[in-house]
Design brief:
single chain, 557 residues, alpha/beta, Rossmann fold, Ribosomal Protein L25, Chain P, seven-stranded mixed beta sheet, 12 helices, binds adenosine-5'-triphosphate, binds magnesium ion
Length: 557
């Protein structure tokens, strides 16, 4: 097998560049715009930017791409750092594109002096009309041939705040007939009077993305500037600026496909709308695809990184099933998460021949690892079992509890159902059962076969828990697939959150926010930040099985 067979296309490029002596090690950057919280799509870019640098002995900067003062905020700057660290990465330098405003401004002056930029008084609409189409060339601006002196004077006055927003822009003078529309005299500076979250009122002109990104890369000595495919058409412009400015380094832009996820939206604008309109409790609502939402829900950094790795890297747009993340979480936690018994939908069982005193049974905290120790679980005369673990008229192969049937209570003993008690409407309210005193310890001297084992909790010695059960936030695989006049909000799933009162083992009363468990037979759970002593709140991260159909070869417990 050739050495590169398992390398992705970016690794191949980096290896070529190292082999040819063009670079020693790759230097990359992750450049979020601090106008929202990071989401799982960003996790892909983060793992790629930081991962490539680490793999080849280089480093990665975290750069706040803060060139749009109207939408940016320190709250976002802080959350971005927290999320990148949580994912397990550490940047070499923390930079802000706003740190480069003076240099970028000086480069704009350089272009003006060289006759390669001009101040244009056309309105945004007029500029659009002049731009032409893919089949027709554009029309030159009447301001295109202003003298360098006049341009310098106007640009400086733009920056002093003499003109209204939108009154004038600075444009690069390239080619109005260029087949790539991005090179038809693109706008490179605009007037903004909103104070910037870091530079305040120092500036009244702000560089456009295209006139800031590559320049920032050049200043930082970035070797490979990895970005998503929508910037592919901007690459010629990126290169034009690099070639026409006296930059200290020549970075290279490489595009890869965005990660899209089923049953959710990822654009920050839409996520912000969900928060503002209170469709969710906040950016960290456990149903949100944000990193802080995933963290609160109970996903581990390992599972998110593994998910991103499994999703792979390509040049073609990709949509990945959210169920793959659950699969990665189960793989990660199977051998890690502490086991506890919790009944989510309780049905009381009275064990009529059980003694008055509580009996204690030992349960391993993690059966595959005795070093994790054990706890004693109290068994009493009245217990709760899961309602779905009982059927009055069971089909064949139902191995849980039914009238006359015998089942094993996990860790404890065998019980047989003797009576079904119902209310006036015929709903089952309680069961009676007897236990076999010889089955204490969950085996019998005659090694009697009992097929089913169910979890249970004492009805008198337990901790009540508020458990939040989640389903996808949207009921459509692609929430943006809407009819005319409707919006993605019309695809919100009204059943995405269900809250139940569950009963769990006593020591769960002391579980701390962020602590993760496997509740036996029920799934992976994580204590929520809303949790208080005496009022424990727990999120279901995921079930033990993929309930939408078995995919990815996942096996049930
Ligand atoms: P949005 O459109 O949601 O606002 P954005 O692309 O504007 O997202 P940025 O903060 O500019 O968000 O993104 C920072 C980096 O993360 C960029 O390099 C961007 O290409 C990358 N990125 C953003 N979304 C995704 C995604 N879904 N998959 C992969 N990379 C992404
Ligand atoms: Mg962006």
């Amino acid at each position: 097998m050739p050495e590169n067979a398992s390398k992705n296309f970016i690794e191949e490029i980096v290896e070529e560049n190292i082999a040819s002596g063009l670079i020693k090690t790759p230097i990359t950057r992750f450049p979020p715009e601090p106008n929202g919280y990071l989401h799982i799509g960003h996790a892909k870019a983060i793992c790629l930017d930081f991962g490539i640098a680490k793999e080849y002995g280089g480093y990665c900067n975290l750069r706040m791409d803060d060139t749009n003062p109207t939408k940016e905020d320190v709250e976002y700057v802080d959350s971005i750092q927290e999320d990148v660290r949580w994912l397990g990465w550490e940047w070499k330098n923390l930079y802000y594109a706003s740190d480069y405003y003076q240099q970028i401004y000086d480069w704009a002056i350089h272009l003006i002096r060289e006759g390669k930029a001009f101040v244009c008084d056309l309105s945004a609409d007029e500029i659009r009309w002049h731009r032409g189409t893919l089949t027709e060339p554009g029309k030159e601006s009447p301001y295109r041939n202003r003298s360098a002196e006049e341009n310098l004077d106007l640009f400086e006055r733009m920056n002093k705040g003499e003109f209204a927003e939108g009154a004038r822009v600075l444009r690069a003078k390239i080619d109005m007939a260029h087949p790539n529309l991005n090179l038809r005299d693109p706008v490179i500076y605009r007037i903004v009077h909103t104070p910037h979250h870091r530079t305040g009122n120092t500036w009244h002109v702000y560089p456009m993305y295209d006139f800031a990104h590559g320049q920032s890369d050049a200043i930082e000595g970035i070797t490979h500037s990895l970005c998503t495919l929508e910037f592919e058409d901007h690459r010629p412009l990126y290169n034009w600026f690099i070639e026409n400015l006296p930059v200290p380094h020549k970075p290279r832009q490489i595009e890869f496909a965005r990660l899209n996820i089923t049953y959710t939206v990822m654009s920050k604008r839409k996520l912000l709308q969900l928060v503002k309109d209170k469709h969710v409790s906040g950016w960290d609502d456990p149903r949100m695809p944000t990193i802080c939402g995933l963290r609160r829900r109970g996903y581990t950094p390992e599972s998110v990184r593994e998910f991103v790795a499994k999703a792979g890297l390509s040049k073609r747009p990709q949509t990945v099933d959210l169920a793959l993340l659950d699969f990665c979480l189960r793989q990660d936690l199977e051998e890690k998460a502490t086991r506890r018994m919790v009944v989510l939908d309780p049905l009381k069982v009275v064990i009529t021949n059980f003694p008055e005193e509580t009996e204690l049974y030992e349960g391993q905290n993690l059966p595959s690892d005795p070093a994790r120790g054990s706890r004693m679980v109290p068994l009493t005369r009245e217990i709760y079992i899961e309602r779905e673990d009982f059927m009055e008229n069971p089909p064949k192969k139902f191995f849980r509890l039914y009238p006359g049937g015998e089942v094993r209570l996990r860790y404890a003993c065998y019980i047989t159902c003797t009576e079904v008690i119902k209310d006036a409407e015929g709903n089952i309210t309680e069961l009676r059962a007897t236990f076999d005193p010889l089955s204490r310890g969950a085996t019998t001297p005659d090694n009697r076969k009992v097929k089913g084992t169910i979890h249970w909790v004492s009805a008198t010695e337990n901790t009540p828990l508020e458990v939040r059960l989640y389903d996808p936030l949207f009921s459509k695989e692609n929430p943006d697939d809407v009819e005319e006049g409707k919006s993605f909000l019309d695809n919100l799933n009204p059943e995405s959150l269900k809250v139940v009162t569950a009963y769990g083992e006593n020591d769960l009363a002391h579980a701390q926010p962020g602590e993760r468990f496997q509740f036996e037979r029920k799934g992976y759970f994580c204590v929520d930040k809303d949790s208080r002593p005496g009022a424990v709140v727990i999120n279901r991260t995921t079930t033990l099985r993929d309930v939408w159909g078995k995919r990815f070869g996942d096996k049930a417990e």
